[in-house]
Amino acid sequence: MYHKRDISWLSFNHRVLQEAKDPAVPLYERIKFLAIYSSNLDEFFRVRVSALRQFQKIDKKERKSILEVKPKKELREIKKIVHQQQVEFGIIFRSQIIPALREKGISLINEHHLFNSEQKQFAREYFQEKILPHLQYQRIEDTFDVPFLQNRNLYFVAVLAQSDELGLVNIPSDVLPRFVTLPGSEGQFQVTFLDEIMRANLEQLFPEGVQSAYSIKISRDAELYIDDEYTGDLREKIKASLAERSIGAPTRLLYDSAMSIELTKRLKDIFQLKKNDLFPGARYHNFSDFFAFPAPSGSEDLFDVPRPPLPHPILEQAQSIFQVIGKQDVLLHFPYQKYDYIPHWIEEAAADPAVEEIKITLYRVAKNSSIAQALVRAQENGKKVTAFVEVKARFDEASNLHWGETLQAAGAQVIYSRPGIKVHSKILLIIRQEAAGLRHYAYLGTGNFNEKTATLYTDHALLTADERLSLEVAEVFHFLEEKPLQRSFQHLMVSPVNSRRKFMACIEREIANAKAGQMAWMMIKMNSLEDQAMIDKLYEASQAGVQIQLIIRGICCLVPGVPGLSDNIEAISIIDRFLEHARVYYFANGGQEELYLASADWMTRNLDRRVEVVFPIYDPLHKQELVKMLHAQWADNVKARVLNSSLDNPRKVVAAGEAALQAQKEIYLTLHT
């Protein structure tokens, strides 16, 4: 018994929408959650719906033998769920967010209130000076001059007066701010959409007049279909394919639901779309632009209370990070603690005469990456720098290619994607000549080497010189460089080498202990649980009496609480101000508890088709720290939702007299003391 992957993902995105609906969340944070929901959904259509469309092209008999989903049926189900969520989205925005803004003296002005005389003059000037230079507009008929709609761009379809023609004009939100602050009356902060300034001035483009205008947006297939990945230069193939992403097959035309049925049909014919490509939406699209919704000065109460990253008690005062790690392991928790230590450590390595070599995996590199810049300086200072750059990291290919080429130009050895496999591990190795010989220092993390996401995603990182781990990290790099391995992985789990087998062994050990009457439990935190073999093993463990607690942010194909199947499995999901990104695997092991951190979820791709690293935590104090965090997350009764068979995301039931506990707040306060 399994939840469908894509339906479970839509349930996750609904949890994001629930945060936008929660009046306890500060107003501008609610707006941010609407933006996250919209951005997530856009990517879902560009990637997952695109994949289902591709599946439809497979021969029916062949499809039956290789696919467990029925694409047509699933696309219909997706459309129904998305429509329900979009209706809820519209209600939240119109009936909750807009009135709440008004109460704060913030007005979002639309055509119905547009504009007073001063604002009309402002709108005309803004249109002529700022907008007009970026417009492409034309008249279209049903039979010819069919324009190409760019991926994710916004357009107005205008019904022209005294004509059967339609007008089409781009809304240039890709080059101009989506929101414009208007001159307003005293005590009022008035904002309008770029769309509305255009709507008020469309007759400057179409002098015969405009009866009505509706916004539309198309999403296109964003997968990079790279033929024969196993031959040729994969980097060059990806560079060539990036341009094709914007011209992929349409997966969704989002249109204003106020549009007439006749006009909708006409657009369907003009743009050669199918019925299932059409999705009614609200007046405005691209709600991801609300990340940049302007706020008046002095409006701190509209946002979350700031939680600046905390100093690490040992690293903050250290003269040398090498000296600290040489004596003891260091465990960092982002974004609760500062990420600065990581680029600083690489900077220290770049300047240290004793450092001979630096190796790193780069999966999603920040645009202005201080880490990549430090690696360039290390190479310029005579260190041997090897960077494995993953150019198949979806939507970050261009940034990764840029930094790969920059490192190459500096003389570093850059290894790009291996055919047929992604490198998703987050590891760093620094080799240093010391009095006793070469010493290996390692970083093992659950999140990317990315300064931006380190302020938004919850992740853990271990800095260690423990040879049990650091020498095996060196072996992972040998594997990546396609060199012969000098030792087996006894301490690390490495996908695709041994992580599936070792995870299975951990669960089987709990099953054996349960059957022997010993304590048997596990707590597992991950982004997604999708692999059927791992789910089946968890079902088997539940039936043997193993108590299982799951904290899963996103996709969960396992169905908890089913009598006779998963009675002993409970699952929750936490959606809060920081994105829960860390993977933690905690096993009873008959009283000799084991705890692992990882870059890998239990998805088939992470276990079999990616290079991932799962690492044990040996330091008892570090283990205790992580367990305390896990228990706080499990006890969360503010931001946690229960994952169940109906995918309806209920809140946890709070017992009478039970205090409110918000895990992210609790963890921050604990680390602060």
Protein model, in words:
This protein has 673 residues and is α/β, with parallel strands linked by helices. 36% of the residues lie in helices and 22% in strands. The protein has 18 helices and 26 strands. The strands form four sheets. Strands 14, 18, 19, 20, 21, 23, 24, 25 and 26 form a nine-stranded mixed sheet that branches. α1 (5-21) packs antiparallel against α2, α1 runs parallel beside α4 (71-103) and α11 packs parallel to α12. The longest helix is centred in the first third of the chain and has 33 residues, at 71-103. The radius of gyration is 27 Å and the shape is globular.
Strand content: 15-25%
What is the number of strand segments? 26
What's the helix count?
18
Cα radius of gyration in angstroms = 27 Å
Helix content: 25-40%
Brief digest:
This protein has 673 residues and is α/β, with parallel strands linked by helices. It has 18 helices and 26 strands. Helix 1 (5-21) runs antiparallel to helix 2 (27-56), helix 1 packs parallel to helix 4 and helix 11 (370-380) runs parallel beside helix 12 (397-410).
Per-chain topology:
Blueprint: H1 5-21, H2 27-56, H3 60-66, H4 71-103, E1 106-109, H5 117-131, E2 137-140, E3 154-160, E4 166-171, E5 179-182, E6 189-193, H6 194-199, E7 210-220, H7 234-242, E8 250-256, H8 261-270, E9 278-281, H9 321-327, E10 330-334, H10 341-351, E11 355-362, H11 370-380, E12 384-389, H12 397-410, E13 413-416, E14 422-423, E15 426-434, E16 437-445, E17 457-464, H13 467-480, E18 493-495, H14 499-515, E19 521-526, H15 532-544, E20 547-552, E21 569-574, E22 579-580, E23 583-587, E24 594-598, H16 604-608, E25 610-616, H17 620-635, E26 640-642, H18 663-672
Parallel strand pairs: 1-6, 8-9, 11-12, 12-13, 14-25, 17-22, 19-20, 20-21
Antiparallel strand pairs: 2-4, 3-4, 3-7, 5-6, 7-8, 10-17, 11-15, 15-16, 16-17, 18-25, 19-23, 21-26, 23-24, 24-25
Helix pairs in contact: 1-2, 1-4, 2-4, 10-11, 11-12, 14-15, 17-18
